[in-house]
Amino acid sequence: MLTYNKPTTVDEAVILLQQPQHAARALAGGTDLLVELRSGRLAAQGIVDLKRIPELRALRAEQDGFRIGAAVSGAELGEHATLKAMWPGVVEAANLIGSTQIQGRASLGGNLCNASPAADSVPALIAAGARCTVAGPGGRREVPVESIVTGPGKTSLVSGEFVVDFVLPAQAARGGDAYLRFIPRTEMDIAVVGVAVNLTLDAAGVCTTARVAVGAVAPTARLVDAAGAALVGTTVDETALNALMAAVRAACAPINDKRGTIEFRTHVAGVLAGRAAKIALDRARSRA
Amino acid sequence: MGRYPAGSPGWRDKVTGQANYGADFSLPGMITGRVLRSPHAHARIVSIDTTEAGKLAGVRAVVTAADFPDLPSEVVAGGESPVNYRYISCNAIARDKVLYEGHAVAAVAAISAGVAEQALKLIRVEYEVLPHVIDVRDAMRDDAPLLHDNLYTEGVDPKPTKPSNIAKRTEFLLGDPAAGFAESEIILERSYTTQPVHQGYIEPHACVASVAADGMTTVWSSSQGQFMVREFCAKLLKIADSDIRVLPAEIGGGFGGKTTVYLEPLAIALSRKSGRPVKMVMSREEVFKASGPTSGGVLQVKLGARRDGTLVAAECELAYQAGAFPGSPAIPGCMTAFACYDIPNARTVGYDVVSNRPKCAAYRAPGAPMAAFAVESALDELALELGMDPVELRLKNAAKEGTRALYGPKMPVIGFVETLEAARAHAHYNTPLKANQGRGIASGFWFNIGGQSSAAVHINEDGTAEVVTGNPDIGGSRASMAIMAAEVLGIDYAKVKPLIGDTASVGYCFLTGGSRVTFATGKAVVEAANDVVQQLRARAAKIWKCEVDEVIWKDGVAHPAQGQTDTRTQLSLAEIAASAARTGGPISGKASLNVGGAGPGFGTHLCDVEVDPETGRVTVLRYTVIQDVGRAIHPGYVEGQMQGGAAQGIGWALNEEYVYDDQGRLQNSGFLDYRMPVASDLPMIDAVLVEVPNPAHPFGVRGVGEVPIVPPLAAVANAVARASGVRVNDLPISPPRLLAALMK
Amino acid sequence: MATVLLQPEFARRNTAGQRLVEVDADTCQALIERMDERFPGFADAIATGVAVAIDGQIYPDPLQQDLRPDSEVCFLPALEGG
């Protein structure tokens, strides 16, 4: 028998998620969880539906950026004009998940906590420097997005903990981000490789900061410091892009599976990094 | 043909979700059946203990192979071609051995799906796991694990004394290939491989079976032939045909994959044991693991030509994997390989090979697309080597009426040359390409079949009519039946209601397959409608007190024959129908035929792609299907067939494949990782209808449903080769494979 | 005289290797009877799974068809499809 609860406060949810007899799973959009339950791949005694908690459904501009509830849907992100203008890469990544129907449900919180190495929104959030609020028995803590997922299907969250919301900083005046993924089809697919680039320029067009994150090429999405460093201090010219591509490829540790080979993923990660960097560069320039 | 609306009868129900597919049917007291499937690719079943499952509350019946007759392994007549019912039985439920992961081992019927699934977990099966073999080349080796201890290669002399995974060798020969190659000025020899691909119908297999206390069995199921379901279930369960009635559901795609039975015999056995109606529906995972894809193959092609492009000799050797039981389409592969061309010296050799995969099933033009991939790819290379336009090379060698086919007969009236000429003249063929883009062309052939069909046309009191046939409407055939009947009767299409009868309400019809329905069943409809017209004339003659010869039927109205100079008014069909009771009773026509003279079909496809040289990703930019359709009864549905075949062929070429782990377990049994194209992957596919009427059909119909899947594999491959400069002869041309080739 | 054309494999098994046989028959049924007289077992060999092509047209039921004096008759595997 499966119990289903829909708490309306964070505290209530924390208590429900801790009850051992329920072995409960947190439900946001359910686009991964329900599929796994139905197929029998996952056995849970309980579901704690977080969508009734107002904080998790709120999306608001704050002084220093945006606060996005963990259960806000991809479709809602896509319709938020100012968010999209500031963080086009994050929104595009979130909007790549599933179909139009799935977009009505799929959330950033679910995409992160499902802990798939191929989650589209995660590299984009990491590149953007997003942090998330984790609520749990010990109260609340704010941590970088990249600290949540520890391996395929595994997170650093302890019993009773869940992600309440994401905090996206304000994008720099001359900043731009982009996310690209590779799939053999055009939609309805899972990333074989995903790369996000977020960079800022100075008035002279020299890159001052850059964060590059990769997905589907390692057990978790990864922030590639060396790749960001390859761009900083350059005008993001061919030489810098080649260094970026090499750094990204060096950071890849993919597997051979039904979706791609090690060689393919590693090579394409570099290609996408170069392409994403060019898009981010154009965006940074056009925002200036 | 007259005017008629674009949609098919029943389209509104399909669009609104009201249509009743296989899984939509329910009966009072109905329970749910589930199947226990093998986790192993190859194992001996040491024992099955169902005691605990049977004891679980809510479980009403458990069956294993022991509940089915142990049929002899023999080839008998069935449908249109020979069948070994033991293989079908052992595929539906494993006897002694499991031969692939997902092979059915037992089935349970319970009051709910949940209870049934719980019960499956209580069935204890002891397996002795055996070495397995997946790849067709590995399966052909002398030291390969043997699937069947009693399978000896047919078609080789002397008869082998050692069993083998090669079920059959077949050879076709025309002229003297050795002499032909000796006089060739250029010889090209290449190897190719293709992967098994699933038909990918959206509707999973589904049925309801109900066995009454007197043994009368009723089955509702989604299949390509209610008579096929009846025939197969009767043989598998040793029931008289007359004790089974099969009612066809609306069908959500089949493409050949629903020309056999999987669940129906299990549901009948469960219903018989439980005394309750039993519904069974496969999950998508079960569809992938336990229903038939078409074969993958290994092919070698050798072409010999003169410098002017004249083909002098050709050879093709192909090995097709049948899956767990013999029956790959190696023979039609051999027969179709060179059928597009007039080649005086040719030989094809085919091998039918079993391996530890699900038993293959028919898929649109079974066996032909793989052979065409090899031959049409080789021809493209030949054109490049000769510096010839690929359409010109094909035109120079194109089969025409009177060309002798490798498989024996001379071609009847065909329209292959016309498709090539239409391709050459098409704007698509003459549009410039940009960097990294390429244009591929390929042609294809399929026989199309006729066969046994029945039809009845009933005239109602109000002058409307019903056309009853026995073929599930898989591609809009109901509309075609109504159009042809309306045309013969001379009444409005809207007044003709096409219906698909169950096995007890219409004469025998071979299944919907082989592109036969509009041709063969359509011919039966035309004859049944003509029978009605004869009766209508006779009734008019009776009313007018004249001879039948003095009555002409035209535009739905009885007219006095020319030269009859009297004042008799005309009689409409509605008027004759209204007075039928007084002129001899109901007016009803029928026809039951075994139809020959199916017109061979030819198509030529044009495909433009763009290759991303950095990722190996292929984008199909433009696609044109040109086909001789004989005569299109419902052009919209004919175009739909052409577009659908092309879409499936493009998926076959680019991304579709079965991925197995080292234990022989399928890794991608879902649409997420079994990558069929989605709508956004394809351009609008242009369909050009070439009409060279088939003289053997009253309206000139040729089958159209299968030809369009034959050329796309090579059309795509040729386009990729011309776009990238790299030729990939192993399908699918997936990004990792193409990128690896590009980086070599 | 109708001409019967056979594939080599079939001929090896059923007609002592003869791939081209002239037969005097005006129906396909008669032709099969003549062939069976000359090559005992021929009728059985084509009883299941075999279609006939007469002057280029393929028929699923060999017994029904009439022949012209110069007809060409091929026996080939019965075809199905998807």
Distance between the termini of chain B: 56 Å
Number of strands of chain C: 5
Determine the fraction of residues in helical runs of chain C and give it as a percent range.
25-40%
Work out the radius of gyration of chain C.
12 Å
Question: What is the spatial order of strands in the main beta sheet of chain C?
Answer: 2-1-5-3-4
Instruction: Give the assembly state of these chains.
Output: heterotrimer
CATH homologous superfamily classification of chain C: Beta-grasp domain
The pLDDT mean of chain C sits at: 92
Can you identify the CATH class of chain C?
Answer: Alpha Beta
What structural category characterises the helix and strand content of chain C?
alpha+beta
Q: What is the radius of gyration of chain B computed over CA atoms, rounded to a whole number of angstroms?
A: 27 Å
Q: According to CATH, what is the topology of the domain at 414-447 and 599-743 in chain B?
A: Aldehyde Oxidoreductase, domain 4
Helical residues, percent of chain B: 25-40%
Shape of chain C: globular
Quick tags:
heterotrimer; A: 288 residues; alpha+beta; Uridine Diphospho-n-acetylenolpyruvylglucosamine Reductase, domain 3; Enolase-like, domain 1; 2 domains; five-stranded antiparallel β-sheet; C: alpha+beta; Ubiquitin-like (UB roll)
Q: What topology emerges from the helices and strands here?
A:
The complex is a heterotrimer of chains A (288), B (744) and C (82).
Chain A: E1 3-5, H1 10-18, E2 24-27, H2 33-39, E3 46-49, H3 54-57, E4 59-62, E5 65-69, H4 74-78, H5 81-86, H6 88-95, H7 100-103, H8 108-113, H9 121-128, E6 131-136, E7 139-144, E8 149-151, E9 154-155, E10 162-169, E11 175-182, E12 193-201, E13 207-215, E14 222-223, H10 225-231, H11 238-251, H12 262-287
Chain B: H1 11-16, E1 31-37, E2 43-49, H2 51-55, E3 59-64, E4 75-78, E5 81-84, H3 85-92, E6 97-98, E7 104-110, H4 113-122, E8 124-129, H5 136-139, E9 166-174, H6 177-182, E10 186-194, E11 197-198, E12 206-211, E13 217-221, H7 226-237, E14 244-248, H8 264-274, E15 278-281, H9 284-290, E16 293-294, E17 297-305, E18 311-323, H10 330-336, E19 345-354, H11 368-386, H12 390-397, H13 416-425, E20 437-446, E21 451-459, E22 465-469, H14 477-489, E23 496-500, H15 517-544, E24 551-554, E25 557-560, E26 571-572, H16 573-578, H17 580-583, E27 588-595, E28 601-611, E29 618-628, H18 635-654, E30 685-690, H19 712-724, H20 735-743
Parallel strand pairs in B: 1-15, 13-14, 18-19, 22-23, 29-30
Antiparallel strand pairs in B: 1-7, 2-6, 2-8, 3-7, 4-5, 9-19, 10-17, 11-16, 12-13, 12-15, 17-18, 20-28, 21-22, 21-27, 24-25, 25-26, 28-29
Chain C: E1 2-5, H1 8-14, E2 20-23, H2 28-38, H3 42-45, E3 50-54, E4 57-59, E5 72-77
Parallel strand pairs in C: 1-5
Antiparallel strand pairs in C: 1-2, 3-4, 3-5
